[in-house]
Amino acid sequence: MNDVAEITQTQSAAAPTDVFAEEERREGYFELVWQRFKKSKAAIVGGLMVLALAVLAAMADFFTPVDPSVLDMKASFTPPSRIHFIDADGHFHLRPFVYNLTIELDPKTYQPIWTEDTSQRYEIKFFVKSWEYKLFGIIPTRLHLFGVDEGGTIYLLGTDKMGRDLWGRSCLAGRVSLTMGLFATFISISVGSVLGVVSGYYGGWIDTLLQRFVEFMNSFPQLPLWMALTAVIPKTWGSGTIFMMMAVIFALLSWTVLAREVRGKAMAFRETDFILAAKEMGASDLRIIFVHLYPNCLSHVIVVLTLMIPQIILAEAFLSFLGLGIQEPLVSWGFLMKNAQNLQTLGVHPWIMSPVVFIIIAVLGFNFLGDGLRDAADPYSII
Fold it and tell me: Of 143, 150, 311, 378, which has the fewest Cβ atoms less than 10 A away?
């Protein structure tokens, strides 16, 4: 009887553990990663920041009340519009409104002085019809998220020296900057991860040859080499060709670190039971590499991808700021920063620095997202 009681107690004590283990086995790897990722508030915020920039870039025309491609020299260096709820007479209005700006020259310094014309207020309305564009490049429409009545203007971030709306141009610039970062990173990830897995799996002379090549590529200083390569790109090439060449140049030296890291993970996995079992069952090297080894390194690759994108965005912004990167008719965040090269212009018109806010949000967003994915990539570790 005592033996039976001990067995019953042992089974009852083990039952909850078995049930928990069974429930854990039912959850897939990505479900565990998602549950862990949701616990990181910084990662969620970073993902929302990146998503917001992506939506602004994809639907830039919809979020822009003024055509950013139209030149208006009369509106050159117009400061950002002030949004009011209280008019000049002190009356409160539920609907926000703006005033048109008039310019005068200071008789002593000859600096422009912008003043609001309070004789006419223009209410900000939502889902208004204005200039025509094609949504996603396909659907012709005149609908915009916000705007003012005819006769009024609203510039959220002011205008540049050509009188073009900086808010609209910053949204459009996100298409080039984000796409450049994604495209160059995918090239770098594809090359670095594959070479890293191959090097770690085979070892021997193949590993030695590939690692010496990685060290040779690492011996070049990245920034000077990027500047030299982008400087020799002919300006007569089409904008699409220049975009592709810049993406390849950025990816040229960005894959080496990932190749080293993936190599280490592949070397750790190649001696595990499931790899040895696959060899014993007659699986080819290509199958072992791309079906067994590479998927087990994929979580690390995704994390590196999210952390590498902001590096490419910063590199492109720096080169474009120096005039070595993106050129008209394409526009990027770095290209918009060229207007801030002149300190005198920057001192008089500080709003031309506003595109830097988009760069900061993009870099912080991707870094927060990458940190969250890095912590969530190992869901079995202690939180």
Answer: 150
Tokens 């971030």 locate to 157
CA dist 38 → 46, 201, 374, 376 (Å): 12, 34, 13, 9
Give the torsion through C-alpha atoms of 296, 300, 303, 304, to 10 deg: -130
Residues 139 and 205 in one domain: no
pLDDT, one tens digit per residue, over 348-360 is: 788 888 888 999 9
Contacts of 315 (CB under 8 A, 6+ apart): 222, 223, 226, 250
Angle between the N-to-C axes of helices 294-321 and 166-202, in degrees from 0 to 180, rounded to the nearest 10? 140
Residue of 30 and 153 predicted with greater confidence: 153
Backbone phi, then psi, for 139, in 5-degree steps?
Answer: -90, 115
Total length of the chain = 383
Same-domain status, 209 and 303: yes
Q: Which of 97-111, 211-225, 249-263, 350-364 has the highest mean pLDDT?
A: 350-364
Q: What is the CATH classification number for the domain harbouring 206? A: 1.10.3720.10
Q: Are residues 260 and 185 in the same domain?
A: yes
Q: Which residues are within 8 A (CB) of 375 and not within 5 positions of it... i.e. 6 or more apart? A: 36, 37, 40, 43
Residue 230 shares a structural domain with residue 305: yes
* Helix extents (H) in the chain: 2-26, 29-38, 41-58, 166-202, 204-218, 222-231, 239-252, 256-269, 273-280, 285-287, 294-321, 333-336, 343-348, 355-376
Instruction: Return the H-helix or E-strand segment holding 161.
Output: none
**Secondary structure element (H or E) that encloses residue 238, with its range:** none
* Contact (Cβ atoms closer than 8 angstroms) between residue 368 and residue 49: yes
Calpha distance 254→188 (Å, rounded): 6
Residue 288 inside a domain? The answer is: yes
Cα dist from 274 to 207, 278, 286, 289, whole Å: 22, 6, 15, 12
Asked whether residue 118 falls in the same domain as residue 211, the answer is no
Tokens representing residue 47 in the block: 């993902």
Q: Which domain does 117 fall in, by range?
A: 81-154
**∠ CA 159-164-167, rounded to 5°:** 65
